[in-house]
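Posted in: Protein Modeling Q&A

I'm a second-year student putting together a small comparison for a lab meeting, and my supervisor asked me to include a predicted structure for Levansucrase. I've never done this before, so apologies if this is the wrong subforum. The sequence is pasted below exactly as I got it from our records. If anyone can share the structure token output, I'd also love a short note on what stands out.
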Amino acid sequence: MTAWTRQQAAAAATTPDARLPVIGVGDVAPIDPARDLWDMWQIMRADGSTAIVDGRQWWFFLAVPRAADPEARHDAARIRLYSRGADGWRDHGAAFPDGFSPGSREWSGSAVLADDAAALTMHFTAAGWRTGGPRFAQRLFETCGRFDHGRLSGWSEPVETARADGLSYRVADDDVPTDDRIKGFRDPGYFRDPATGREHILFTGSAPGVADVHDGVIGLATRGADGWALRPPIVTAIGVNSELERPHIVVRDGLYYLFWSTQAKRFAPGIGAPTGLYGMVAEAIDGPWRPINGSGLVAGNPAAEPFQAYCWWVTGEGEVISFVDYWGLDGGTPAHGIGYRRERFGGTAAPVFRLAFAGDTVRIAAVATANRAA
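Accepted answer (user: helix_wrangler)
Welcome! Here is the predicted structure, written out as tokens:
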């Protein structure tokens, strides 16, 4: 278990070379004009490489029909499939049938395509309960279906994988946020360790029995003969940050790069780190982990537009995608009102960029335009 310290995180406030360019009007091209899209993950192979089928990449997004207030999207989120190719993006419909999820909505996860290019395993978060109950309850599920050139079918009954035990991980069953925060047990990110062949799930968690609201951890579960078994958190941010979201690992040159996203407002007072993509590096999944670039910051929103993008996802090829959040605010904030939020919420893919890896250093290598062809 590795602690992300306050001193390390605070250093992220003074690393200008890790800041992304300002998103402009030419960068905000809707993938799906009828819907708001956000958190995304690609269909990948078990080795972490992006699956290319019919010359296209295949991406799942959280999606909802456009509504008056973009902030309401989390209460209606569904997973939807899109593909990206030489002609841009295409919509392939909802991932699951209506009523399939064990929750009241679906939150983020990961997807793995088998060697036959047909069997697809989806790990996802069921938020809430199908029959009601705590609004922010979170559970991790796995289901297997068939992927047929963009058509999804035959999903198995969702099976709960790792369960919060109240010992290593706090049970996430909040009915309402506390201080604009909810406890976490979500975002299952699949990883097969090339050194051992063992399968793991990383996830966003909260530490139990901690008085500080800044209690974020990155959790780990490992598949064994009897199913998925919880293991202790691999990274903790006690007293530093309350949400280390959508953790995932990319292996490069024998090193394990652990990435996650977090927002400036989730840091403890006085740290001053930006909303961005953060990470640590190690020689093995059990660590010890070292903050990338000394602070953990890999790519942050620019000071001029601190809300412009969120939820960065790094592919096995080192390409990074995220979504356009609130852009073009020019000093404003999303708190200015519903109409203001609607006008300035992107709800589409942000400009794609690539990373350059060199040991404990990871830099932004090149930034492309949003929604370009693969």
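A couple of things worth pointing out for your meeting: The two ends are 37 Å apart (CA to CA). The chain has a mean pLDDT of 95.
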